[in-house]
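Sequence in, structure out. First:
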Amino acid sequence: MGKIIVIANQKGGVGKTTTTVNLAAGLAEADKKTLIVDLDPQGNATSGLGLDKNELENTLYDILVNEEDPQETIHETGIENLYIIPSDKNLAGAEIELVGVKKREFRLREALKKIQDDYDYICIDSPPSLSLLTVNGLTASDTVLIPLQCEYYALEGLSELLQTIILVRDNLNKDLKLQGVILTMFQRTNLSKQVMDDVRNHLGDKVYDTVIPRNVTVSEAPSFGQPVIHYDTSSLGALAYLNLTKELLKRDRKAA
């Protein structure tokens, strides 16, 4: 049965989608059959892998609202071993349409159960909010990976997210675990170093050794519809995400 990881942080601009796309691409590169689930109505993971959001017939919206077979929404990405369930702006309406639906927090989990055995990893890119969509992602997942930007308010947002994870575990998904925290957009400044030290002091070995630097090629790659590890394999950003993949696989082997 494939492992489901939700990449979550209610703050925007911390590298959730970038981490989802490049971690998934790294797992695919490591010969792991991997599926991305784009749970963000902005659809950045979808467009970042070269899919045109305006030409999609079936998306995650159809799964959550119309209970469509997830097999009908899976798209190839052009990268071996990497697939995606895309999203578009219609997903923003899903929360309103699901308000009166029983067990609405479990819609994604029930859908992914049907295809979980087909993949080694399923990576869910969640929206920048603690919304019903994010709760669906947390309820459907085995673990949570938190990208944390190395900036002043990082710990404040992290505390709120960790509390949400506890609430979901207590009420909706008792097996949910913290995969870890990955520090993103690191710069060689005193502030970045201070944030890194504070997070490591608070969470210890839950913080990954790999640190993702602020790197221009990481920002450029999505406009070409590619993960940075394919766009510029020798860039600092690409090397960091490949190292993150190796570290995640190593941790998973130890935990098995």
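Second:
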Amino acid sequence: METITISKLNKLYPYSRPLPTIQIFLLGLIVISGLIALFFAAFHAFMLVAEPTQAFFAALVIEAGLIAECLARINKPRSVAPWLGLVISYIVSGTYNYTQAAFAGKDLGGWELGALAFGPLSALAVVSLTFGNELRSYQDQVTTWNHARADWVEGERKRIEQERQQQELDRLKLVQEQGQTRLESEQRHTEKMARIEAKKDVPRVSRKNNGGVPKMSQAEMLKRILEHLEKNGDTHMTQLAEQLGTSRSTLYRRIDELQQAGKVHKNGEGWKVN
């Protein structure tokens, strides 16, 4: 089986990574636009009492502090410190904006100055918190997706490992069965050869001639011929051949062998055993 790494399993995960929602993009656009607008408003207000460089950094610090506290509040919703920092940043920024608005617009009333000081600031804070909550919700979805993918990868890794182990067991079992089959075949072959060797020492009496009489070995036939001729020397050769289960020509050859060996001879009365 092909080795599959964790990275390959991560790519094989059947579910896609969650995508950011359209709300996140819209809220992000609003926050960026609000930050730019608030920055220029604060910069313009600070230009009335300070140099351009001082006004730039003052406006930047106010915005950065407010946004940092909003993000801290989102990342640690149960902590008191982000809440406290957000309230302090809101009060400081709002008071300073109120002072600048009062200096710039001397004819404006208190509620008008409050609206100019805290209205845009409050709107930006609310939008920033909403944007952060959307980001946190998306982050939770991604975290859940990562955990689910990790569990799936671990399950697939265990399943593949079990399949690999089972294949190895099946292979070993097959090798064992093949070895057992080969051993049994060798044993059968050995037994067969033993039977063949044993048959070599046994006279061939299983084959039969046309008369149905089992054939015998040459030594046994010679012995039977001698016994018969000793009892009846003038026997008829055809009858003797039938009794021995052989042909007349074979019988004559065996008698010639006995005669050449000096075991029988023929006289006027027939065959005599020496």
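Remark: Strands lie at 264-267, 270-273.
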